């Protein structure tokens, strides 16, 4: 059985959604972030970064980082079709989008949400400048995704859903905390509607008391 460590309102929902999609036995432990449970000695043995999510695999091995968890789960259950196998022609493109979402879109989004983590204790003007620059880059990344979906959608890999799509949907959800609206991009908006309608997405959202759309 898989054991997922997550917290409400975090990217851990992406792993929860994928576990629901796979229809495999799992359990979730929701950490209390306000009580700093993620920094407890017990949890730091699982994820020394003190962040969620983290996943204990069926063989007892531990993995953390959302994108790594998603790819690991998809590869462990190829029958679900949530990632192209290594020998398939679409595998490089799939990995490209996973890394793009993590290293470009998500990382830059974090600079916009938490500019102080990037530049430290500086004036509010400096923080605003960092935030503004990050949001401009976020918009440029969304334009790249929008153009790809317009040409090749409705999902990253055409008509096949993958964990890259779940990763994007959850990143768009986090983006709603900024002034950027992913739904201003018509093909991304259509994409989000399709992801919202997936039964396993709805099940995971209901279990986490999420009403309405993801983003």
- Report on the biggest sheet: 4 strands, mixed
Distance between the termini: 30 Å
Structural class: alpha+beta
CATH topology of the largest domain: Glutathione S-transferase Yfyf (Class Pi), Chain A, domain 2
Estimated radius of gyration = 17 Å
Looking at the overall shape, the CATH architecture of the largest domain is Up-down Bundle
Query: How many E-type strands?
Result: 4
Order of strands across the widest beta sheet? 2-1-3-4
String of helices and strands: EHEHEEHHHHHHH
Percent of residues in helices comes to: 40-55%
- Per CATH, the class of the largest domain reads Mainly Alpha
Low-confidence spans: pLDDT under 50, at least 5 residues? none
Mean of residue pLDDT values: 97
Total number of helical segments? 9
**What fraction of residues sit in β-strands?**
5-15%
Spatial shape: globular
Number of domains: 2
Describe this structure as you would to a colleague.
This is Glutathione S-transferase. It comes from Aristophania vespae. Helices cover 54% and strands 7% of the residues. It has 215 residues and is an alpha+beta fold. The protein folds into two domains: 2-80, Glutaredoxin; 91-198, Glutathione S-transferase Yfyf (Class Pi), Chain A, domain 2, CATH 1.20.1050.10. The chain has a four-stranded mixed sheet, covered by helices on one side.
Lay out the secondary structure.
Layout: E1 2-6, H1 12-22, E2 26-30, H2 41-44, E3 54-56, E4 62-64, H3 66-76, H4 91-113, H5 115-119, H6 124-152, H7 163-175, H8 186-197, H9 199-207
Parallel strand pairs: 1-2
Antiparallel strand pairs: 1-3, 3-4
